[in-house]
Amino acid sequence: MQRASRLKRELDLLAAEPPPGITCWQDGDQMGNLRAQILGGANTPYEKGVFKLEVIIPERYPFEPPQIRFLTPIYHPNIDSAGRICLDILKLPPKADEQETPGDLPDTSDSEVHSMTKKRKAGQPGSPEKRFRPGAEGLAVRPGRLS
């Protein structure tokens, strides 16, 4: 019941106030089967592109993230050839030190995401530099050196 009422409320809000360049609609009878369309951003390699996505909302939503997949082929480092998206917020389960509740999820508006990146400190959970810290200098290739 929680899933249905929350999903209905979120779909109504999405229809009333869609994010710029994004449309989303229910696909068929199932409330949890959605389709979305994203317009490529101005001054990007995706400008003038129209990208269709499939969104599947799991039964345990909002405690499990939606499954989102690009139906339109797109070249992007975080999207594989099957359209699957590599994005931390879409993964489950979170690590113990990164545990968040659905109410803690960040607002995805441009200003909030932008300010979130300014606030992130080295060593915080999810900080990308943590993956590259050990031995990174030894892996760098210097100009003029092939090994």
Automatic annotation (TrEMBL):
Keywords: ATP-binding, Nucleotide-binding, Transferase, Ubl conjugation pathway
Official protein name in the record: Ubiquitin conjugating enzyme E2 T
A UniProt-annotated Pfam family: UQ_con
Molecular-function GO terms, alphabetical: ATP binding; transferase activity
Active site: 86
Keyword Ubl conjugation: no
Keyword Signal: no
Family listed: Belongs to the ubiquitin-conjugating enzyme family.
The protein's annotated pathway: Protein modification
SUPFAM superfamilies: UBC-like
InterPro entries registered for this protein in UniProt: Ub_conjugating_enzyme, UBC, UBQ-conjugating_AS, UBQ-conjugating_enzyme/RWD
PROSITE patterns noted in UniProt: UBC_1, UBC_2
Domain of life: Eukaryota
UBC core domain span: 2-147
Protein source organism: Rhinolophus ferrumequinum
Chain positions covered by the region annotation Disordered: 95-147
